[in-house]
Design brief:
Elements lengths: L8 H18 L4 H4 L4 E5 L4 E7 L13 H20 L4 E10 L8 E11 L3 E9 L5 E11 L6 H8 L1
Antiparallel strand pairs: 1-2, 2-4, 3-6, 4-5, 5-6
Length: about 160
């Protein structure tokens, strides 16, 4: 059995860059295109990540602020990216996410999403997150749980498991 080794800072930076560039290339249309952060910083030493997003017109709800579902998806995206980096493999899935909306997020806002690993088991990662508005106040918070698959999966395997 292969033993996982703690990556160097340079390896983490390369992994983050690869993850971001891969997402930008893969998700050119639809909602996932919106879920690619402008920038991010990850610290595996501190089990944290900061991700920056600019809120766009396509993210609005009927009253003209950012739709709550978009905010939840942003939290899930950030937690998922950090989970993938912390797990050392690429296959994770969300098992639970709870979100509290504290202040409206406006179109044009550049928000920072801070994610922190709070608990780690053999196959479960639990994280908390905050969405910081441009003035530094908290717009929303989240609590997220991710399952780490023990071996790499692809879409064919997931389809076969359903059958």
């Amino acid at each position: 059995m292969e033993v996982w080794k703690e990556p160097t800072k340079e390896q983490v930076e390369q992994a983050v860059e690869l993850l971001l560039s891969s997402r930008k290339e893969t998700f050119k249309n639809g909602i996932m295109e919106m879920m690619c952060p402008n920038d991010c910083h990850v610290s595996l030493d501190e089990n944290t990540g900061s991700f920056w997003f600019t809120m766009t017109e396509s993210m609005t709800n009927p009253i003209g602020i950012v739709h709550g579902g978009v905010i939840v998806t942003i939290f899930d995206t950030c937690g998922g990216m950090l989970s993938r980096l912390l797990a050392g493999i690429s296959n994770i899935t969300t098992t639970d996410i709870q979100t509290s909306f504290l202040k409206p997020v406006q179109i044009g806002d550049c928000v920072e999403v801070k994610v922190k690993l709070t608990s780690r088991g053999k196959s479960i990662l639990h994280m908390t997150a905050e969405m910081l508005l441009p003035n530094g106040s908290i717009g929303a918070t989240a609590s997220m749980t991710y399952y780490v698959f023990k071996k790499p999966l692809d879409k064919r395997q997931l389809k076969e498991e359903k059958e």
